[in-house]
């Protein structure tokens, strides 16, 4: 028995595929986690490098952090400017390359891109056994 409700088909399709919102939430959580880990790693590397530079030669480190008549721009502001321009060039470069590959392959969605890549590149075989037997390799001769 059918009802005259036009939204009934839409609701039943949403009930049949509950995993799509869960998958999207999982991807968002994973992206946030990876972004947080990457940012923490970059911050830790930057702080470690600064502390090593200051420990190695504190007088030169202090000279580079203050603007003087001999140095019109401090070392830290020069480094930050270089980091900014380098980051801009890197992001734009990756974006241009990604856009060029996207247009060259003629895809319109990520599913199209995945199927196109799977047709171009060979499949990676999934083996349950390891390719190298470490016991055999590590045996004394």
The main β sheet shows up as: none
Q: Which spans of ≥5 residues are poorly predicted at pLDDT below 50?
A: 11-16
Helix content: over 70%
**Strand content of the residues, in percent?**
under 5%
Strands, count: 0
- Output the number of helix runs: 6
Report the order of strands and helices: HHHHHH
Class by helix and strand content? mainly alpha
- Give the overall form: extended
| Distance from first to last alpha carbon | 78 Å
Radius of gyration, in angstroms, nearest whole number: 27 Å
The average pLDDT score comes to 81
SSE layout and pairings?
Blueprint: H1 8-16, H2 19-56, H3 58-65, H4 75-105, H5 110-120, H6 134-138
Helix pairs in contact: 2-3
Please describe what this structure looks like.
The protein has 141 residues and is mostly helical. It is built from six helices and no strands. The protein is extended, with a radius of gyration of 27 Å. Residues 11-16 have low confidence and may be disordered.
